[in-house]
């Protein structure tokens, strides 16, 4: 049985590449994950970066990670079709072992500026998500997966997330990227025990694990607590390494463990050294686990035919309304008042269950991305 591969998220970013270079020179990096849709501003990809991607592609150790598709947008957008066209073209140039995307929908008017936020777990969003996943598969012809979300508004959402992922992925026989820092955010923000939360995920569908760092945010809504944010700008905390040790034996089809960090968190020599040490620590945990994975193709069992794109324009209007509230509210009190007066009240969004400190966090996230 094959061994689990230790990988890095490696994109066209000088700081990321500088941090990854010592690991590559020592032949420690066994696979790379590339955010293939993050080059929308780059007119010409450098030949040397293309050669790096090709080298891993030729060994079937290149995995693609999407950022900007906005899977659950209630309206089918021209930018989504352009994203699929780009994926189809890129998949002819490189041999991806699989393709993944983020859960949620993007706030922000500009398609490339927004924050991935949660959606109501309803028949409408399930239908939209399944339609979009089929389209992703048809564009790339590779196994398709989704990453668990770091952000939730309520404990109810946290508890329903794993089962909803399972339902979403069924038509494409897809898999889960289990991001353990995202899981850590949920554990800390909703005061949950690991065993209680991990039992709610279909771990037989986990093909990839992410580990990363983040940051803490003070809360005016709940002054006695700090909110864990998935900002990817710090080293991996010890708690996430502990989650990796606990989780590895539970995932029989796990193939990749990926270390992520954004370039803005890798500016200093100290941060680059911490990244290097984090990778060594991750690789040691993977090797000491003696885990092997039972290969699962995660390819669709039935044809993935699609007709006209599934839409729900009422949902789309609610998404626009929510984005506008979060991006313009002067405070969480203001956001809560506007939400109570909005079309989201008494709906599948269940805003009546939303925690004030998570609404406050959503306002901060949306404000950061507002253009």
Category from helices, strands and their pairing: alpha/beta
Query: Given the structure, what is the number of helices?
Result: 12
Q: What share of residues are in beta strands?
A: 5-15%
Strand order of the largest sheet: 1-2-3-4-7-8-9-12
Q: What report would you give on this structure?
A:
By secondary structure, the protein is an alpha/beta fold. The chain contains twelve helices and twelve strands. The strands form three sheets. The chain has an eight-stranded parallel beta barrel with strand order 1-2-3-4-7-8-9-12, surrounded by six helices. Helix 1 (14-25) links the parallel strand 1 and strand 2 (31-34). Helix 1 crosses helix 9, helix 3 (78-93) packs parallel to helix 4 (123-140) and helix 4 crosses helix 5 (155-169). The protein is globular, with a radius of gyration of 20 Å. The mean pLDDT is 94.
